């Protein structure tokens, strides 16, 4: 993901915030419907969306897939603590973790744990194999802690009406 140092220096206005709110609910909203929803011309809306992307405020448009629908019904959050806090160990883990089978997201953390992995697997054996085969064998990993996810409840979105 590119670094956008200018992204947060120019504040967003109410129209930008309204565009972001609509896109957060449905990133596939057509430009004409988006423009109508926020009360601007379609050409203005398109220019604003492009500017939000160029500034790094909109980082991506994604499809959210239900892991259970693709054979990964068991989800877990796995905390990972590295052996040492060197750039080499961080980079070693950071560069391999996103490509491990079943990894849905990787979070680099501050605090007692260094990373948090959101994983999806077919069942308990798959989760055990993931931890044993991919985490405990990684030379940078000192400790892991696994928490099962019973249910994922979406957040209320951070772009609320003010």
From TrEMBL:
The lineage of its organism: Bacteria, Bacillati, Actinomycetota, Actinomycetes, Kitasatosporales. It comes from the Bacteria. InterPro entries: ArsR-like_HTH (IPR011991), AsnC-type_HTH_dom (IPR000485), Dimeric_a/b-barrel (IPR011008), Tscrpt_reg_AsnC-like (IPR019888), Tscrpt_reg_AsnC/Lrp_C (IPR019887), WH-like_DNA-bd_sf (IPR036388), WH_DNA-bd_sf (IPR036390). It comes from Kitasatospora misakiensis. Keywords: DNA-binding, Transcription, Transcription regulation. Coiled coil: none annotated. The keyword Transcription regulation applies. Residues 12-73 form the HTH asnC-type domain. Pfam families: AsnC_trans_reg, HTH_AsnC-type. This is Lrp/AsnC family transcriptional regulator. PANTHER family: LEUCINE-RESPONSIVE REGULATORY PROTEIN, POSSIBLE TRANSCRIPTIONAL REGULATORY PROTEIN (PROBABLY LRP_ASNC-FAMILY). The keyword Transcription applies.
